[in-house]
């Protein structure tokens, strides 16, 4: 490949210095290739090792190879070897990779911390929600017990109210009955009083007639008056007794 073409280019430049590639040149053949202009204006691919060999052969005044170390001159590092350049490039790549991995590791660590904090926060929220649910369930159970207790109390008060209402209605009926009975007794009393008055009038009339019919019978005036009083008292007593007996019988019922 490129190595053979480079070597033939070197032989054409210096035909008296044909040689085998050195160990360094063989190692450098694996590096990147670059284009080198040919004498006829065409471009061909040559390896950096071949280009270095050509530079060394052109620079040597007697045509000898300058040792095993083949160098390449450039504008920045005129004497740096291709092996050092490759090693430095690999070191830079490794450093860049290391920095990138460290950055990724730092990002992953930060993300892990964030996820841990979020997990801790969610765990706290879950614990709080579980406590809230337990509190709500306890409150609901307590409320149900209170509702049942209040319902029983309301039922008891309603029963008591119904009983009081029934008692009040019974008392009202009894009061009305007693009022009617009192009115009946009052009417009976008035009737008895009228009868007593009639008896008194009849007794007075009888007494007057008796006096006129038998003025000389010798009956004392005081005895007639006493008899009238006894008759009136007996009638009044009978009326009062009848009224008391009637009231007693009504109350007993």
Automatic annotation (TrEMBL):
Residues 84-202 form a coiled coil. The chain crosses the membrane at residues 225-249. It comes from Aegilops tauschii subsp. strangulata. Keywords: Coiled coil, Membrane, Transmembrane, Transmembrane helix. Residues 207-222 have a biased composition (Basic and acidic residues). This is VIP1 protein. It comes from the Eukaryota. Residues 1-54, 203-222 are annotated as: Disordered.
């Amino acid at each position: 490949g490129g190595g053979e073409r480079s070597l033939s280019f070197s032989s054409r430049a210096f035909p008296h210095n044909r040689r085998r590639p050195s160990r360094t040149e063989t190692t450098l053949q694996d590096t990147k290739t670059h284009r080198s202009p040919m004498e006829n204006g065409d471009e061909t691919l040559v390896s950096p090792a071949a280009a270095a060999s050509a530079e060394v052969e052109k620079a040597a005044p007697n045509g000898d190879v300058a040792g095993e170390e083949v160098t390449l001159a450039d504008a920045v590092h005129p004497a740096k070897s291709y092996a050092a350049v490759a090693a430095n490039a690999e070191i830079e790549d490794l450093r860049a990779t290391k920095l990138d991995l460290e950055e990724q590791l730092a990002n992953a660590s930060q993300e892990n911390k964030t996820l841990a904090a979020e997990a801790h926060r969610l765990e706290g929220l879950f614990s709080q929600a579980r406590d809230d649910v337990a509190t709500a369930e306890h409150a609901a159970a307590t409320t149900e017990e209170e509702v049942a207790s209040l319902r029983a109390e309301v039922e008891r008060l309603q029963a008591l109210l119904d009983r009081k209402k029934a008692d009040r209605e019974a008392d009202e009926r009894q009061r009305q009955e007693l009022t009617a009975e009192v009115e009946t007794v009052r009417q009976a009393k008035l009737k008895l009083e009228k009868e007593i008055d009639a008896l008194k009038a009849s007794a007075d009339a009888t007494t007057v007639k008796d006096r006129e019919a038998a003025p000389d019978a010798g009956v004392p005036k005081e005895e007639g008056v006493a008899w009238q009083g006894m008759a009136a008292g007996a009638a009044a007593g009978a009326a009062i007794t009848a009224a008391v007996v009637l009231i007693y019988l009504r109350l007993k019922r």
